[in-house]
Amino acid sequence: MSGGVRRVLVTGAAGRIGRAVLDLLADQGIAAAALVLDDPGDLPADLVVAGDATDPAAVRAALKGADAVIHLAAIPTPERDPAEKVFAVNTQATFTVLEQAGLAGVRQACVASSQAAGGLAFASRELHPAYAPVDHDLPSQAEDPYALSKLVDELTAETMARRHGMSVVSLRLPYVGGVDERLRAFAAACAADPGLHARGLWAYLEVRDAARACVLALGVPGPGARTVLVAAPTTLVPHATEELMRRYHPTTELRAPLPGRTVPIDLSRSAGLLGFTARFVL
């Protein structure tokens, strides 16, 4: 499942997905180190380094003994910080983590990208994908600093794969949450008003599935960089997907049938490359 990985550095380890990754690694008997801004004191890792993922010294300290990296540390939205900070922090952190990992001999890495890289999520106006199911070839319409930072992160992954002979998988994650932590409540709100998540194409991923996708990404052989769309196979709303697309994305060309609640995202690469299918489905 993890390609023979023995020790993993998890950045952003105190976050929603980071904690789930640490729990999964512990369940699999894989040692973990954690890089966090502030140590919460309860992380299941045998090394916790309090530091910034943009700081090479902190990253080097956290990489001690690691043979793989799952990079999750980022400013997760452009809505609370200045645009310059969102872009600079996210791109510098990804460059720094992958550069230091490559220099340390690490050859397996997973980077958290986002489906927001397509441009819809945080745009200042309503945007629509050119076609659906959305796939990896769909041109981005990014116009916000978070989406741009994730596109640059994916380019950084490609560069580091060439520079260091690494395997780097960038996961384009959708809305992620625990079933009882926030998914059920968000699903209920979107059932009442599907427009709330139209920009996210009604996609979601339960946090334990997100963690499993991250760990599976470490088993992809290298060298090379791949960007992979991951999501649950169905939407989180009790409405027919094709009807939702016609209502909220009327200019989008439907290139394949989307029966029932099928998520309008091409998940073939996550199934074929990672062997991933979501297990926790609403």
What does this structure look like?
Helix 3 packs parallel to helix 4. The chain is globular. It is of the alpha/beta class. The longest helix has 21 residues. It has eight helices and eleven strands.
Key features of this structure:
two-stranded parallel ribbon, 282 residues, seven-stranded parallel β-sheet, single chain, globular, alpha/beta
Sheet with the most strands: spatial strand order = 3-2-1-4-5-7-10
Principal-axis shape equals: globular
H and E string:
EHEEHEHEEHEEHEHEHEH
Total of helices? 8
Low-confidence stretches: none
Q: Average pLDDT value?
A: 97
For the biggest sheet, the summary is: 7 strands, parallel
Strand content: 15-25%
Kindly state the number of beta strands: 11
Please state the structural category. alpha/beta
**What would you report as the Rg, rounded to the nearest angstrom?**
18 Å
Percent range of helical residues? 25-40%
Could you give a short description of this structure?
By secondary structure, the protein is α/β, with parallel strands linked by helices.
